Amino acid sequence: MKNAYTLKSVSGMFISLGLALSLSTGTTAQQQPQKASPARVQVVTASHEMMAPQIYMPGTVVSRNDSRISSEITGRVLWVAAEGSLVKEDDIIAAIDDRIIKLNVARNQSQIKSLEARVDYLKADYGRTQDLAETNNVPANRLEEARSTLVMTEQDLAQARISLEQSEINLARTQIRAPFPGRVVARLAQAGEYAVPGRQVLRLVDTQHLEVSAQVPVSLASVLSDQQRVSLRSDGRMVEASIRALVPVGDAVSRTMEIRVAVPEGGHHVVGAAVQVGLPSSAPEEVVAVPRDALVLRREGTYVFRVKDDNTAERLLVKTGAATGKIVAVSGGILSGDRVVIRGGERLRQGQTVELFEDAASGR
Questions:
Q1: What's the whole-number mean pLDDT along residues 227-247?
Q2: Could you tell me where the DSSP H helices lie in 32-139?
Q3: Domain hosting residue 218, numbered range
Q4: In the 8-state DSSP scheme, what is residue 198?
Q5: Are residues 274 and 160 in the same domain?
Q6: 262, 241 contact by CB (below 8 A)
Q7: Based on the domain organization, do 103 and 165 belong to the same domain?
Q8: Are 75 and 196 found together in one domain?
Q9: What does 252-309 look like in DSSP terms, one character per residue?
Q10: Quick one: which of 65, 103, 101 has its CA closest to 208?
């Protein structure tokens, strides 16, 4: 009985040991790492660029057409376009009472018709007098008198036509028209008020053609030029632009001069908004540059992943320098012609195999 119990215990121990070994083997098999698939990345080529360190100067968005429209004639204001009205060039934006001017136009037209009839009669009279003078039937002074009267009446007719044209111009001025497309920003005269030449009626601002006005140190005059590429930064966004014009006249107190930077069309800038203008602070130098998207920012520093010839990723610690638009100067092992990752680098590891897809444009 004792032997039977001992044999059963030993058998149970062997079964338990076998089960444990089986479970251990299965767990080990499951824990074996599977071979990682290549990471799909997008790359561009680092290149030599002429770049300079940048400084950012404050600027203000202004309109290239910002006018306070005034009346050109005297009269009572009948109507002024409402604030915020979007108008096209030559649209009517204000109206002035035109009744008196219309009377002047009618008076001048009547005077012209009268003088035209008078000129026709005097021409006929002068012709008859010439015929009589040729046969010595009228004295010579009578011919001179007829010619003189005709000439003076023709000049009166010319003056009347000038007066009519002036009246028509004044009549057209009773309808104040937009000199350029834009928005009515402020009404400076109200219906019923009296307008005189030079009296401001409204303010019209072109909200499509914008630029940035900035004051920069006169010491930068030697490194800035018309049409030079610069960058504009506002609300966390950065766009490329160009200097439209330098105003090379410095202020004696602030030692600054004005620059005007063209704002690319299609943006969402508002007249009066504050922006920062990125300008070179010294003469440009040749550097190795990569797109901003190639930079991987970590707490311990800034990295760039370079793709080697065997399509494996190499992580390089770099130091950034000057930046222009979408490209940044880097140093720390990157050479011109190296392939750097701009998409898919966030989870790359050192030495990981990569698979390239759709080579991107340089992004500059």
A1: 88
A2: 99-134
A3: 54-64+210-280
A4: T
A5: no
A6: yes
A7: yes
A8: yes
A9: TTT-EEEEEEEPPTT----TT-EEEEEEESS--EEEEEEEGGG-EEETTEEEEEEE-T
A10: 65
Q: What residue type is 108 in one-letter code?
A: N
Alpha helices in 135-214 (DSSP H): 140-173
Quick one: 84 and 182 in the same domain? yes
Report the C-alpha gap between 289 and 331 in whole angstroms: 9
Same domain for 152 and 102, yes or no, is: yes
Number of domains, the chain: 4
Please tell me whether residues 88 and 113 are part of one structural domain.
no
- Whether the CB-CB separation of 249 and 257 falls below 8 Å is answered with yes
Query: Do 184 and 297 have their domain in common?
Result: no
CB burial class (10 A; 0-12, 13-18, 19+) of residue 200?
A: middle
Query: In the predicted model, what is the mean pLDDT of residues 78-92?
Result: 95
CATH number of the domain encompassing residue 246: 2.40.30.170
- Quickly count: other Cβ atoms within 10 Å of residue 84's Cβ: 8
Identify whether the C-beta of residue 48 lies closer than 8 Å to the C-beta of residue 286.
yes
Residue 80 phi, psi dihedral angles, 5° rounding: -135, 135
Note the pLDDT tens digit of each residue in 178-188: 999 999 999 99
Side-chain-side CA neighbours of residue 245 (13 Å) = 5
| Both tokens assigned to 112 | 């012209």
Return the pLDDT at 36: 59
Domain end call among 208, 230, 262:
208
In a domain, 102, yes or no: yes
Supply the pLDDT for residue 198.
93
| β 237-247/182-187 pair status | unpaired
